[in-house]
Amino acid sequence: xxxxxxxxxxxxxxxxxxxxxxxxxxxxxxxxxxxxxxxxxxxxxxxxxxxxxxxxxxxxxxxxxxxxxxxxxxxxxxxxxxxxxxxxxxxxxxxxxxxxxxxxxxxxxxxxxxxxxxxxxxxxxxxxxxxxxxxxxxxxxxxxxxxxxxxxxxxxxxxxxxxxxxxxxxxxxxxxxxxxxxxxxxxx
Length: 188
What we know:
The chain is built from seven helices and five strands; from the N terminus they run E-H-H-E-H-E-H-H-E-H-H-E. By secondary structure, it is α+β, with helices and mostly antiparallel strands. It has a five-stranded antiparallel sheet with strand order 2-3-1-4-5. The chain starts with a strand and ends with a strand.
């Protein structure tokens, strides 16, 4: 399974409400319309909750400072590298990808919105079904974009994150009420 993750920032001239509406009401249906052409197994939008600004600031202060929050996170799941390459190798797949990219360029600050391919490493899953955070469910989804801390190499940081940090988070999951914890490691 390959996951493409895109951390989205809106351009300065687009109000947050407009960004959210365009992303949710225009871009989401556009991606769904091209799902089969691109071999997308799952597509998820995580929208930033403006009411969480105080909690975000507290989390940043507690961790010694974090990057400014993104406006949202967009995730695509593909069955494999081969599935993704095959979809991109067709005329219909390239046209679908171009249409989606052109639409995103109308409301996303592309140069400030990193994208990468990764593999999912589930750490905690308290339910059989995938937990979905939706308005009024009371479930909050938190994303951290993590970089290797010098002097660790990327490989050393990934190893630490998977073998030390993952078990540490798991050991506190019940006390913290964690429903799900996934690590998405960059696909080389």
